[in-house]
Amino acid sequence: MKRIKILAIVGSLRKESYNRQLALAAKEILENRVDFSILEYQDVPLMNEDVEFPAPEAVKRVREEVKSADGIWFFTPEYNHFFPGVLKNLIDWLSRPVSDEEPHVLAGKPAAISGVSPAITGTSMAQDHLVTLISFLNMDVMNVPRLVISNVMQQLDSDGKLALKESYPFLEKQANAFVSFIEKRIMCKEMLSNKYGPCRQS
Ligand SMILES: Cc1cc2nc3c(=O)[nH]c(=O)nc-3n(C[C@H](O)[C@H](O)[C@H](O)COP(=O)(O)O)c2cc1C
Question: pTM for the complete prediction?
Answer without folding.
Answer: 0.95
